[in-house]
Amino acid sequence: MPKMKSHSGAKKRFKVTAGGKLRGRHGMTSHIRVKKNAKRQRRLSNDLVVSKADEPRVERLLGR
Q1: What pTM does this model have?
Q2: Is residue 28 part of a domain?
Q3: pLDDT tens-digit profile of 5-50?
Q4: CA angle 24-37-13, nearest 5°?
């Protein structure tokens, strides 16, 4: 049986930290930023740790 390939889109969107946590980006940041205030945009620009509920799905996409 061949090796499983990791999901190309997930590789671009998620990184694994040194501690093994999954790091991703916030949503709502790609367009219509005029109506979002500066404080909200700064907060959304920081990376976030993937929630416990989503971790198994993201790990399977990354082939872990």
Answers
A1: 0.80
A2: no
A3: 999 999 999 999 999 999 999 999 999 999 999 999 999 999 999 9
A4: 15
3-state secondary structure of 21: coil
How high is the pLDDT of residue 52? 96
- Lookup result for tokens 């976030």: 48
pLDDT at res. 47: 95
Structural domain harbouring 45: 35-64
**Nearest residue to 14 via CA among 40, 50, 41:** 50
Residue 21 placed within a domain: no
Distances (CA, A) of 29 to 11, 13, 25, 39, 47: 19, 14, 9, 13, 12
